[in-house]
Amino acid sequence: MGRKSGNICILQVDERIISMLRCQRSTKGLQILSFAQEQIAPSHDESGVGRSLKQFVRKHNIAFDDVYTVLPRHEMTVRILILPSHDLNEISGMVRLSAEEHVPYSSSELVIDQCILQRLSDGNARVLAVFAHRDVVERHVQVLTQSGIEPQRIFISTACLASAVFAARGDVAEHTALVNLAPGGIEVLVVKGNVPEYGRAVATPANWSNLHTSEDIQEELAAEVRTSLAVFRRETPDNYPVDRVYVSADYGDPSLAARTLAEKLSIDVVPSRFGASLCISQEQEVQTIPLTLLGAALTAQNRASVAIDLVPPSLTEARQRAELRRAAIRVGAFLGALLISIFALYEISLFQRTAYLKQIMHKSEELRPIAEEVALKQRNLAALQERINRSGTVLEVLARMSELAPEEGLTFTKLTYDSRKGVILQGRASDLAVVNRFSNTLRRAARPEEPWLAEARQGKSAEVQERGVTVQQFEIEIPFLEKSVTETATSEENFAE
After folding, report:
1. CB-based burial label for 182 (10 Å; 0-12, 13-18, 19+)
2. I want to staple 476 with a disulfide (CB 3.0 to 4.6 A). Which of 267, 316, 351, 425 is the partner?
3. Whole-angstrom distance, CA of residue 256 vs CA of residue 260
4. The domain containing residue 420 runs over which residues?
């Protein structure tokens, strides 16, 4: 199916005629695009209606529009109720609970809708309640869906007629009756101001197109209207009379029906021409558009004062399932696109990283000889620096010993220096206590750059005679640390390279 046109199509289908009104959405008035009616050949079952509707839909491209349909009142039960609430949810519950008081069916077998007609000052509300058997609505939807269309909403003729009258005439103080001739029935609606006060519908096999040739049909029309007006006066507390009667028809010009009623009832009866004031175009063909379709067009644009929707639960559930499927498809498409995007980004990132790694490895191979040459030079320079800046030489050790030696009581006779093992200091002292203090001084004087001093310890000692005086011959051993020895050897090796 192609893309929707966005136009509104009001469709009314029964066993005798198919009516279609197409209009454009507008806030000023009804922008009529086209109007068409076709007679249906007599048939003993609904298959004839389905075939005719399918051809009609194909001929006028209705499937591309937003389709709304209208069901006649004589196929269901309509009541105007006075209920003690202004809250629509409470009113809906009251109407559903009282359904069996008005129709011989349980609420589960019905399609029910209601709207508030008037909020009264005493807290009550005048409510229009509609009770349609589910089979009637389901059958209507089945005929439409088999023809390739699905109605957005399903209206009732009573609400459409009332909305059209109120929109065209405004708040009029007089009691006005509207008689609408529909294929298969007749409907009478009495209004005052902007409020429906009474309604009655009767199914009839009469073909109103033969009104001008059949006296029986004329009598039946007059009798039904007379009965409806009498019942209205009887049910109205103040017994208000009807000031004027308007006649509309779903099949064509209502002028003959208006003249017939005026003659037989002796009351003021005129054709309903005020529907044309609802349309932006004032062409001659606008006068022939049924008032029911005009009211339905207002309702489809949410501009009606009386609105009823009889979409059955089966269609509502099907729409919900379809919406869930569409939502699931949208979510699936989004997730699929997201996964594809993530995979594509991963592939791009992986490709870029691989290419960059190859580039780095290639550059590394180019720079390897240069890096090895630089490393060798760094090792040679380090070894050279080590030899230049080497600490712990024999002269430095001798200078350090002299710096820490006491001014008297101690004489050095020999210094043995081994760069890998350490230092052995020999001498003579007047007392071993002086030697002990000297070794302690060496250990305390150790600095971070000369950790070997911390290892100073007193070695062998002996008493000897020197020029007739007894003195103490001593040794102080200072071993070099293993780490210092290793570093010294390594520096020498590096320097050798």
Report:
1. buried
2. 425
3. 6
4. 394-496
